[in-house]
Design a protein that fits this description.
With 309 residues, the chain is mainly alpha-helical. Helices cover 65% and strands 5% of the residues. It has a two-stranded antiparallel sheet with strand order 1-2. A two-stranded antiparallel ribbon has the order 3-4. Residues 269-294 are annotated as: Disordered.
Length: 309
């Protein structure tokens, strides 16, 4: 078996990977919180999709490959297949999205969360080992069954707990604490699966291995991270804007003042038309205007001038 390094750059990779897992989980929990308060199914689904990209794409997939940048086999080059790498991204986002849709719609229940957690955990495992299959070395990769099974248990439990957080956690403090726990669970699953890996080199070690160099992965990872964060920000801004300028049923608010309580001229007209005949209020009587001092003095002065002339 070949010797492998999991922390080639020291603490940089695990720390950066945990921060990505924490940030993605934090954004995902904020999005699921908005989904719970959404008044329509369409808005709820939109927020859950945003959460799927935040958790599946950011907290899980980006964390995985940032951590893999610190992996090295000194006796063999390490390369990555770009197609399987993209497939692993799709598996992560889709499976997390399915779990969120299951628990995000309908009544909340623990059995439903457990079923969704198992489905999501299996999907996260598929993402992890698909990403590992995308790694090419001059030899074969094997996994120790005990540690591989432990990584599967961690993935399912972590997915179940994460989904329970998405339907129950409220408040900035609790969301931050839940995101921190989710980050630890995601990193724990990854490094447990990496500890199960064994590399058996071929008899004639090849110096040329097909695929992308690990450091070249920084470019797509950076671009994908920026695109994900920008997309999440724009989607959240659009959703917030629509919620601000529409009512709970998705109908645009027209004629409503920003500082009013929902009264509009159209509503007042409709209420007047619906009023029964004979119940309309009569016009308010106008009080007679009393003469002022100036209006009384002017005629008197005109009469006095006429007499003197």
């Amino acid at each position: 078996m070949a010797h492998v390094h999991h922390f080639t750059y020291g603490a940089f990779n695990p720390v950066a990977a945990y921060l990505l897992a924490f940030l993605g989980s934090f954004l995902g929990l904020l999005s699921t919180g908005r989904a719970r308060s959404a008044r329509t199914r369409g808005r709820r689904t939109r927020w859950l999709i945003i959460a799927a990209f935040a958790i599946g794409g950011g907290a899980i997939w980006l964390m995985h490959f940032v951590a893999m940048l610190g992996f090295e086999v000194p006796a063999s080059p390490v390369r990555y297949d770009p197609r399987l790498t993209v497939v692993s991204l799709g598996l992560s986002v889709i499976t997390v999205g399915v779990g969120l849709m299951v628990v995000g719609h309908g009544r909340r229940s623990f059995p439903k969360t457990v079923v969704a957690g198992i489905l999501t955990g299996v999907g996260v495992l598929a993402m992890h080992y698909t990403g590992m299959a995308a790694m090419h070395v001059s030899g074969a990769i094997h996994y120790e069954p005990g540690l591989a099974g432990a990584s599967a248990v961690i993935a399912i439990v972590a997915a179940t707990v994460a989904l329970w957080f998405t339907v129950s956690v409220q408040g900035w403090g609790r969301v931050t604490a839940a995101a921190a726990i989710m980050g630890v669970a995601v990193c724990g699953m990854h490094y447990t699966g990496m500890a199960a890996m064994r590399v058996e080199l071929s008899e004639a070690v090849r110096t040329q291995v097909t695929g992308l160099r690990p450091m070249l992965m920084i470019v797509p990872i950076t671009l994908l991270s920026a695109a994900t964060i920008l997309g999440l920000a724009l989607s959240a801004l659009q959703a917030l804007t629509e919620e601000e300028f529409t009512d709970g049923a998705g109908t645009p608010r027209r004629g409503v003042h920003a500082d009013s309580t929902g009264w509009s001229l159209k509503q007042a007209s409709l209420s007047a038309m619906r009023r029964a005949p004979g119940t309309r209020p009569s016009p308010r009587p106008v009080a007679p205007r009393l003469p002022t001092q100036e209006t009384v003095v002017e005629p008197v002065m005109e009469q006095a001038s006429a007499v003197t002339s």
